[in-house]
Amino acid sequence: MSQENPTFSNQTNKQAEGRAFRPSATLRARQDQAAQRAFFIFSLLPVLLILFVTVALFFRSWPIISEYGLSDLLFGEVWKPNNGQFGFWPFILGTFWVTAVGVILAVPACLLASIYLAEYAHNRTRSIAKPVLDLLAAIPPVVYGVWGLVAIVPFVDDKLAPLSDRWLGSFSIFSVNQPTGFNVLSAGIVLAVMVAPLIISVMYEIFSTVPNDLRHASLAVGATQWQTIRNIILPQVAPGILAAVVLGASRALGETIAVLMVVGNIPQIPTSIFDSAYPLPALIANNYGEMMSIPLYDAALLSAALVLLVVILIFNILSIIVLQRMTRKK
Amino acid sequence: MDSHIQVKNLNVYYGKQQALKNINIEIPKNQITTIMGPSGCGKTTLLKTFNRFFELTEDTSLTGEVLVDGKNIYDKDVDVTEVRKVVGLLAQRPSPLPMSIYENIAYGMHIHKMKKDRSEYKAAVRHYLEIAGLWDEVQKRLHDPATSLSIGQQQRLCLARGLAVEPEIILGDEPTSALDPISSQNIESRLIELKQQYTTVIVTHTLRQAKRLADYVIYMYLGEVIEAGPAKEVFSNPKHERTRQYLEGQF
Questions:
Q1: Any idea what DSSP says for residue A116?
Q2: Which residue does chain A place closest to B53, by CA atoms?
Q3: Distance between CA atoms of B33 and B202, rounded to whole angstroms?
Q4: Coil, helix or strand at residue B40
Q5: Closest CA to A260 of A307, A190, A192, A180
Q6: Dihedral, CA of residue A272, residue A274, residue A279 and residue A283, to nearest 10
Q7: Which pLDDT score, from 0 to 100, does residue A213 have?
């Protein structure tokens, strides 16, 4: 195409004005090609960057992996860098506890909100609610952290913990073992609010991939809107909903500053949502750059980063594959 | 004339634009009525006021009345799902639900809890597939996904699905326009068979189809009903100049 077009315009111009435009035309073609290449390189850059970061992290963490072995690092339960003990297990579990609580709190509300926005809301409501949600996503994490500190931590400590202790204390995951609001639940609540805008907007997109013909087919036999949603739409979008949840989870896994402000940062394996925890991102952010005199400390933190990166990449890739399949069906 | 649907002083607006202007018509019971007219004249809009489907488009408003069996379906106390159960719709493009052939037919019956047990559902599914002339073709694969059927079969499936909730009125919004000639003919002959039991209203933009099907004809132009009457009269001796022009194929 790029070859034919200049020739064509060249000929018509020649006829009209009797002048040869060929040099200009080939210049345009070359510019076009150059631009194409430049854009290609820039869109390739992020891919290369991810590869580069992963490889670099791997090499930097190799000293400790080769010395302790991967499974001892991952599943070691003691974190005492001064004694040369580098067990990531408390941090890995801390990350998953916090993420799980956040996602479990966020998903039901997000599902209902996105169903409302996609299926029930008027255009006018939608045109207000969607930008507000996007705004929520734009609030800096540290602000959420401060909100967690001044509002959520005291609330969990004063209200939720005593309630849970009285009514649910016999279940170990609800028992209150520590006299502080800096715990998994506080971090989970803050995370839930932080990932909600993302989950809602992805779920909303998923709902809009369902063709209207299907809604109408169901409504035409006299189904209510809710019957249509439950019987027709939800089964259709189920994989996409799951992908939205996974995407939200991967965002929650990596969330650092807001979590480390409210989670307590104690390297222990949590057994209750009222236990403090110490997720991987908080470990890295709190310690990197300090205490570097301890042997292998630097490599240990970087291998923690590697673990986090790999987990998040897997989560993201999975959800992107599902979402792409869904939108292609549309 | 024994009329099933009566439309009185109906005005429909999309936003501020008026789509239907002061419509007053009666649709005869147990006959096929076709609504004809050039594109954009409001045929489909009129059809969709009969099952309150036009409400699904946002920013629409309506004045006047649409009476089905003497009851205005736009009254506040009317349950819209009940209206749509009585007034079925065959859409322009076949839209099988993403489930099996069997489940497609049973769907509406389940929604309205119309049958007591599995054997009743089974019998009903067979009955309506037979009515739609689909049973012989699908009886061995009732549990295959409905999307595995051909387009023509899908449209007959949609017809059976609509009939399964026992409507009294069938609306068809150009129900054969997406189909090949043989499938179209198949649907048309179903509709003719069914007209003894159902009041049928078909929007069509093909004059020949209207002539084949219609007992009663409504001709519309720019949101107004120009002429309505028994097919024989309208086709042989149109009263209105515009109708005559349309029938002669001038536009």
A1: I
A2: A220
A3: 6
A4: coil
A5: A190
A6: -130
A7: 93
Is the Cβ pair A122, B58 closer than 8 Å? yes
How far, in Å, are A102, A192, B184, B241 from residue B224 at the CA level? 58, 55, 28, 14
Q: Under an 8 A CB cutoff, do A221 and B84 touch?
A: yes
How many residues are given for chain B? 251
Nearest to B165 among A214, A221, A227 (CB): A221
Structural domains of chain B, ranges and CATH numbers in brackets: 3-247 (3.40.50.300)
β-bridge partners, B20 = B12
**H-type alpha helices, chain A:** 4-17, 22-68, 70-75, 89-115, 123-138, 141-147, 153-155, 161-167, 184-207, 212-220, 225-228, 234-254, 257-262, 280-287, 297-329
- Residue reference for tokens 């069914």: B194
Least reliable range by pLDDT among A20-29, B34-43, B55-64: A20-29
Q: List the domains of chain A with CATH numbers.
A: 4-68 (no CATH), 88-329 (1.10.3720.10)
Q: Which residues are CB-contacts of B149 (< 8 A; sequence separation ≥ 6)?
A: B96, B101, B138, B157
pLDDT exceeds 50 at position A6: no
Average pLDDT over chain A, rounded to an integer? 89
Name the residue facing A216 among B58, B91, B108 (closest C-beta). B91
pLDDT tens sequence across A81-113: 888 889 999 999 999 999 999 999 999 999 999
Mean pLDDT of A288-310: 87
ipTM here: 0.92
CA proximity to A119, closest of A111, A128, A108: A111
